[in-house]
Design goal:
This protein is an all-beta fold. 0% of the residues lie in helices and 52% in strands.
Length: 121
């Protein structure tokens, strides 16, 4: 059974930082692309960042230069380091296994349950 479990969400003030983690089980982590998407209240889903097996990355323009995605294959875990957070980053963040790696397309084989990130001004 594939499981993706996020952690690390919370509430911060604008300009602050958070680090999200996603531990994957039941899936061949080392050979899979991994990613994060978010959904703000009343809005659609937005792919935020993806990382391929070879550690190549892709970011949405809205987070480029502020967010960093990384992976630790030994721990079956990937991360989203979020710096200089803005109120517009407020959303539920989900880790996921993208169908189209590095395409930032809203199609995923598996998704986690999400972790809330709230940024206040």
């Amino acid at each position: 059974q594939v499981q993706l479990v996020e952690s690390g969400g919370g509430s911060v003030q604008a300009g602050g930082s958070l680090r999200l983690s996603c531990r994957v089980s039941g899936f061949t982590f080392t050979s899979s692309c991994m990613g994060w998407f978010r959904q703000a209240p009343g809005k659609g889903r937005e792919a935020v960042a993806e990382i391929a097996m070879g550690h190549t990355t892709e970011y949405a323009n809205s987070v480029k230069g502020r967010f960093t995605i990384s992976r630790d294959n030994a721990k079956n875990t990937h991360y989203l380091e979020m710096n200089n957070l803005k109120p517009t980053d407020t959303a539920m963040y989900y880790c996921a296994i993208p169908v189209y790696c590095l395409g930032l397309i809203d199609q995923y084989y598996f998704e986690g349950q999400g972790t809330q990130v709230t940024v206040s001004s």
